[in-house]
Design goal:
Elements lengths: L1 H6 L13 H14 L20 H13 L2
Length: 69
C-alpha cells in the first residue's frame, strides 16, 4: 500500500482486519465519514500454507481463507 500511495498521491489507503467484524464496522465508519460520496474498493484476503494431507486442519484453514470478505 505504501508503494501504491507513493506512486499515486491522490489515492487513500486504509488497513483493516476484515475477519474482525468490529474492525470492518470501524473501517466502514471511517471511510464514509471521510468520503461520503465515494466508492470503496475492498481488496482483502489471506493466504496460508495448507497441508492438504491434514484433513481437519486443511478444511478449517481453507474455510478461513474463503470466508474473508
Amino acid at each position: 500500500m505504501d508503494r501504491a500511495k507513493a506512486a499515486f498521491q491522490k489515492i487513500h489507503t486504509f488497513q483493516s482486519d476484515v475477519s474482525d467484524p468490529e474492525a470492518s464496522r470501524h473501517l466502514t465508519k471511517e471511510v464514509t465519514k471521510q468520503f461520503p460520496s465515494s466508492h470503496l474498493i475492498n481488496n482483502a484476503g489471506i493466504m496460508r500454507k495448507i497441508n492438504v494431507h491434514d484433513k481437519a486442519g486443511a478444511s478449517k484453514t481453507s474455510l478461513e481463507e474463503i470466508e474473508v470478505i
